[in-house]
Amino acid sequence: MKRRFKVLTIILFAHVCCICQTNRQPGDLQTPAQGKETPSDSIKTIFVSRQDFIINKFTSSDSCVVERNAGTVTVNQSALYDLDYNTAALSRNEYMDMSGSVVKKGVVYKGISLGLDWTPVAILNSSATKKAFLGSLDIGPVVGMNYFNVPLKLRTGFAAKKWSDSLSISGLNLSEFKNGSLNSDNGYYGAFEMGNFNSVLPFIPIHASVNGYGRNMETSKSIAGVGSFLYAGGLVSGDSVLLSYNDSLVNGRDASLSEAGDGKSRYIQNSRRVERSYTMSGSLKGKRRFFLAPDIAYSSSRYSMALPSSSTLTSDRSHRDNALIMTLASDSLPHINYSGSLRIDWEKEEKLGGKNIDMVMNGDSLHSDSMLVKIHDYNGYRAKMDHAVSMYSRKGMGFQYIFEISRYSQTYPLQYTDENDSVIRDHSDNDWIVQNHRLDATVFACKKLKIITSGEYTSNLRFYLDSTRSVNNVTDRSYKAGISVFYDPVADVRIEENASAEAKKTDFEYPELQAKNQNYPPYSRRFTSKLGLNWNCSAKLILRCDWNEIYSDQGYWYDSEYSSDTTDTASDNVKKYYAVVTKTWEHDITASAKYSFSNNLMLEAGTTLKNIYETDYKNKKYTPNGDMIKNIVIPYINVCSAMNEHLKVNFKLRRYIDTIADDYWDFSFLFSVSF
User: Fold this and answer.
1) How deeply is 254 buried, as exposed, middle or buried, from its count of CB atoms within 10 A (0-12, 13-18, 19+)?
2) What is the average pLDDT across 536-554?
3) For residue 326, what are the CA distances in angstroms to 232, 295, 345?
4) Is the terminal CB of the chain with fewer CB neighbours within 10 Å at N or C?
């Protein structure tokens, strides 16, 4: 399994920035967690272990962090081990990280700290025919200080890598790591962290956090940075203003272990990559006036990615997005609540990194390839409006109505004429309009009985503007009605019933174009009943039983306008009907018991019995589908324990017994302890 770059997140108004580091990030650009200050002369240890196994895939993650605070000296050492193991493919991917640091405070001056940190990482990927290794080490001094109450940390040091994609598969042979068979790459790195969101900058009421990392190796160079700035303030009118700016940049190249098409690991030297993302936003939150609270916000963002070392620009792209959001909500109105919003987005996607080219054939193959990419530039427009109104009495009866409507449009403006005088363009210009209405009503409510009814209608129009694709213009309509009943016949006993019926029908915009292939519009239905009984036998024991019945069918809507048969088309008396192609019945019963031994330990055990039966329409009759007729038994047990805030255990075990598919286990275990 190929390791991906770890995602960096800034605590507030996050932006993602991929750091050029060996498959994982050592945390160079992560904002330090802000929590309670560790008391002097203390040792804190956190151990977390998680194991998951399902079918033939086993994943494990174990981590341990030990922090010693001895007055002016702080020692931190972590150990992380991740394992992904596939028993069917015989693949095994391991990741190890032993990052740590030692820092002494009050060096020279009270506000200055000096120390050493290290980040050794090892990755070992193996399969039945290949084994590969990649290791890296960053080690060097670290200096910390506070300047006008703004924290600043500087790091630099030695960086090294070792790798090989041709290790012995018979086992781990340490001699392969000693006899010089590993490739190597050496260099140096530098990093800084400045600011946090717990304090403001001196002389300016702005929260800021800026981090950067750079590395210079023999075969690669890379820099990365991320910054976030936030201003929040109030106006004399009682309104408040929020302004933010977030920026991230990656520039350079790196190496990683990757899997080729044959499943074997390879050491890949990635091309130089320049990736930048920024967002500027501002909002004005109005104070409550006449029972209403308004809010308006605007944001502008841009993402760009380029591969400067590539011989072509076909991978380069640039995307801009602007959004205007207005919201309005009621406040303190008796029994009546209203909220609504309007959002307008306009975006622009530009291939080739936004570079303009002449859309005329000139005989150059590279130029032709660029034009084929450039025609996928598009302008997008999105508008969405929603309203929600609810009114409930003190007894709980009332209703809630939600209305949503949105439109998304794309236009592809560029085109060119090829050597055959054919116009080449992207014909995906489209309009998508979605409309949704939902009504929930509590029609009866008393101490023992509560009845809620609901209805929902959704319309989804997918409309292509170009005639070459208009045959795919469709409108999907779905209808759903439901009722929920909650009945408490006696104390500690509850009976629940949730029943619903839904249907989905598709209408083609141009039936005559579908008639050539007798392509009838799809139609489907689904009926569901979920009955539950919950009995609180005592303060410690809860018994529950659930009985679910589901019937669904799929087919098409037969109408003469979709038929190429002239006799059918000419007849005005042809009956329209729903032709059912597949019918499916699902029955399942679950019985479970939950027992709390104490406030900190809970045990749940149960079993689910499920039956699935499906028939298909063939040769003018419904025939059972043997592949979809099966019985499933799922016994399970769950254990949850939280002895105190320092010790937590979660355990889950399920066994799937299937009369058709292979049986398998579903196992999960989580253990966490801190002291």
Assistant:
1) buried
2) 96
3) 19, 6, 12
4) C
**Dihedral in degrees, nearest 10, Cα atoms 390, 393, 398, 402:** 0
Q: Write down the pLDDT at residue 33.
A: 37
The pLDDT-based confidence of 82 (bands split at 50, 70, 90) is very high
What is the DSSP track for 165-195? Answer: S---SSS--GGGGTSS-SEEEEEEEEEEEE-
pTM for the model stands at 0.80
Q: What is the DSSP string of 519-575?
A: -PPEEEEEEEEEEEEEEE-SSSEEEEEEEEEEEEEEEEEE-GGG---HHHHH-S-PP
Beta-bridged to residue 234, according to DSSP, are: 240
CA distances from 342 to 297, 384, 387 (A): 11, 6, 9
Burial class (CB in 10 A: 0-12, 13-18, 19+), 17: buried
CB-CB neighbours of 501 under 10 Å: 15
Which residue, 58, 62, 124, is CA-closest to 85? 58
First to last CA, the chain: 34
What are φ and ψ of residue 475, in 5° steps? -125, 120
Any idea which residue has 């709980």 for tokens?
A: 396
Query: What is the token pair recorded at 651?
Result: 């355990």
Structure tokens at 575: 């009956």
Q: What is the CA radius of gyration of the chain?
A: 32
Tokens linked to 41: 């002369």
Residue among 635, 631, 643 nearest 593 (CA): 635
CA-wise closest residue to 656 among 675, 631, 624, 673: 631
More confident residue, 30 or 481: 481
Tokens for 406? 């949105």
The tokens for 640 are 């949850």
Q: How long a stretch of residues is the chain?
A: 675
Tell me, what's the pLDDT at 30?
34
Which one, of 33, 108, 132, lies nearest residue 76 by Cα? Answer: 33
The three-class DSSP label of residue 109 is coil
- d(C-alpha 143, C-alpha 153), whole Å: 6
Q: What are phi and psi of 604, to 5 degrees?
A: -130, 135
Angstrom distance (rounded) from CA 12 to CA 26: 20
- Token pair belonging to 302: 């841009």
Closest CA to 249 of 17, 22, 30: 17
**Going by DSSP bridges, is the β-strand pair 398-411/378-392 parallel, antiparallel, or unpaired?**
antiparallel
Q: Which residues contact 387 (CB under 8 A, 6 or more apart)?
A: 338, 339, 340, 402, 403
What residues does each domain of the chain span? Answer: 1-287
Please report which confidence band the pLDDT of residue 212 belongs to, taking 50, 70 and 90 as the band edges: very high
pLDDT band at 489 (very low <50, low <70, confident <90, very high): very high
Phi then psi for residue 56, to 5 deg, are: -125, 20
Amino acid at 439: L
Return the number of other C-beta atoms located less than 10 Å from residue 665's C-beta. Answer: 12
Is 446 in contact with 486 (CB distance < 8 Å)? no
- Distance from chain centroid for Cα 48: 23
Mean pLDDT value of segment 589-603 = 90
Residues 618, 622, 623, 627: what is their CA dihedral angle, to the nearest 10 degrees?
90
Q: Is residue 67 classed as helix, strand or coil in its secondary structure?
A: strand
β pairing state of 415-417 and 398-411: unpaired
Q: Where are the beta strands (DSSP E) in 87-200?
A: 91-97, 100-105, 112-126, 131-147, 150-164, 183-194
What residues contact 126, with CB distance under 8 A and at least 6 apart?
91, 92, 93, 132, 169, 265
Average pLDDT of the segment spanning 372-396: 92
